[in-house]
């Protein structure tokens, strides 16, 4: 767009002014079409403070005009200006990038598809193994009552086993009865109690979920972590069923060559209780750095449901007006097991620092895509 000189007016008759402004209006239309979306260029050409066409028009026509012609000139000048502003405000002028600058041969912007977090996929993998054994998924709240989290699971008030779980208590619960006080659940086990209060045996449930403990974070601990827990209750469930189930589950998870072994252990809600080890998946039991040259990796806890747990469920069912014969310890038995999801994910993927799972570092996470 060239700035041609503004011709001087020979006189100030209506005819001369009509012609002069009509010429400029035609120029506005032409330059609007020629600008082809270059809104800023068009604006500078006409409204630029120093070299804009309107500025020149003002200097050559308005300022040199005799006083009696200025009013008519000024009105026409304002109309011309409004015409220019109308072009600038037209929707076409606002429409984003210039078409001429769009190169359709450029590579597109690849959108990265999200993936499930490695802890979620690990949890799903464990749950899937038990689904194939006929277990169904049960879930429960993370804010629990003392009753569901401790009391019904055979941790009575002041039981020393409660000290082993650094519990995050919800504030200002002092006015409530102890069993109703709220806390962040320290394990997924309260879902066992909730399910037995809602459903009749036989029962086979797998419970994935997030749990909270007042632990300082280090390479193997985190105040928030995940568990998958299982419960099987029926008329004739034995320790052999427990061993067979976990043996099968560990082979499904870690490979057909894996063997298991059971050690006596203690949990308040199971009796007898056991820790389960699997043969090292890295050295096939020959001994390596990852299994500390023992050939075994400790993976989960389990045991036969303590009759005291069935007794607590029975008492609570009675209190709630439900059938209190279903979980009579004389009529049912069962087993329970639980494992840490982070630990399994660390073993499966060779991760040495639990904090990596929570850091949100994409460089770490995208390795699981
Ligand atoms: Zn090993």
Structure description:
- This protein has twelve helices and nine strands.
- With 369 residues, it is of the alpha+beta class.
- The protein has a seven-stranded mixed beta sheet with strand order 1-4-5-9-8-7-6, with helices on both faces. A two-stranded antiparallel ribbon has the order 2-3.
- The structure holds zinc ion.
What descriptors fit this protein?
elongated, 37% helix, 12 helices, 9 strands, 369 residues, binds zinc ion, alpha+beta, seven-stranded mixed β-sheet, two-stranded antiparallel ribbon
User: Could you give the count of β-strands?
Assistant: 9
Q: Spell out the helices and strands N to C.
A: HHHHHHEEHEHEEHEEEHEHH
The percentage of residues in β strands lies in 15-25%
Structural class: alpha+beta
The overall average pLDDT, rounded, is 89
Count of DSSP-assigned helices: 12
Principal-axis shape equals elongated
Chemical compounds bound to the protein: zinc ion
Q: What's the Cα radius of gyration?
A: 39 Å
Task: Report the end-to-end length measured between terminal Cα atoms.
Answer: 54 Å
Describe the sheet with the most strands.
7 strands, mixed
Spans of at least 5 consecutive residues whose pLDDT stays below 50 are none
Strand arrangement within the widest β-sheet reads: 1-4-5-9-8-7-6
Helix content: 25-40%
What's a quick, concise take on this entry?
This protein is an alpha+beta fold and 369 residues long.
Q: What is the topological layout?
A:
Elements: H1 14-35, H2 39-47, H3 53-62, H4 67-89, H5 91-94, H6 118-131, E1 136-137, E2 143-145, H7 146-149, E3 182-184, H8 190-198, E4 203-212, E5 224-234, H9 239-254, E6 260-267, E7 270-279, E8 296-305, H10 307-319, E9 333-340, H11 341-349, H12 362-365
Bound molecules: zinc ion.
Zinc ion is lined by residues 280, 282-283, 287-288, 290-291, 295.
């Amino acid at each position: 767009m060239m700035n041609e000189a503004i011709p001087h007016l020979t006189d100030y008759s209506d005819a001369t002014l009509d012609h002069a402004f009509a010429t400029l209006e035609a120029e506005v239309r032409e330059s609007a079409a020629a600008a082809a979306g270059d809104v800023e260029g068009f604006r500078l050409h006409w409204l630029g403070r120093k070299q804009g066409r309107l500025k020149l028009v003002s200097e050559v026509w308005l300022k040199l005009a005799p006083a009696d012609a200025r009013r008519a000139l000024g009105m026409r000048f304002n109309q011309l200006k409004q015409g220019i502003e109308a072009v600038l405000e037209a929707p076409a002028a606002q429409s984003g990038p210039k078409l001429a600058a769009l190169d359709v041969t450029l590579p597109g912007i690849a959108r990265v598809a999200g993936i499930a977090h490695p802890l979620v996929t690990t949890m799903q993998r464990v749950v899937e193994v038990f689904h194939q054994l006929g277990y169904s998924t049960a879930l429960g709240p993370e804010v629990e009552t003392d009753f569901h989290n401790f009391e019904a699971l055979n941790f009575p008030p002041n039981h020393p086993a409660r000290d082993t779980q650094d519990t995050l208590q919800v504030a200002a619960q002092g006015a409530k009865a102890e069993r109703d006080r709220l806390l962040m659940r320290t394990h997924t086990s309260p879902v066992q109690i909730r399910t037995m209060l809602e459903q009749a045996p036989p029962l086979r449930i797998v419970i994935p979920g997030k749990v909270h403990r007042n632990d300082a974070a280090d390479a193997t601990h985190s105040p928030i972590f995940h568990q998958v827990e299982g419960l099987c209750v029926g008329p004739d469930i034995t320790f052999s069923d427990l061993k067979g189930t976990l043996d099968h589950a560990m082979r499904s998870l870690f490979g057909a060559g894996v063997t298991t072994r059971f050690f006596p252990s203690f949990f308040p809600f199971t009796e007898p209780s056991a820790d389960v080890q699997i043969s090292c998946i890295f050295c096939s039991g020959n001994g390596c750095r990852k299994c500390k040259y023992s050939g075994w990796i400790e993976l989960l806890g389990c045991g036969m449901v303590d009759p005291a747990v069935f007794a607590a469920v029975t008492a609570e069912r009675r209190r709630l007006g439900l059938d209190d014969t279903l979980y009579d310890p004389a009529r049912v038995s069962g087993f329970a097991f639980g494992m840490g999801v982070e630990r399994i994910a660390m073993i499966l993927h060779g991760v040495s620092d639990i904090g990596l799972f929570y850091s949100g570092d994409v460089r770490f996470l995208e390795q699981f895509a």
